[in-house]
Amino acid sequence: MSPCESELFLRKRLKELRTVTHLTQAQVSELAGISYDYYQNIEQGKRTNVSIRLVEKLGKVYGLSICELFSPATPKIKLKTKSIPPPHYKRRK
Question: Is the dihedral of CA 40, 43, 45, 51 positive or negative?
Answer without folding.
Answer: positive
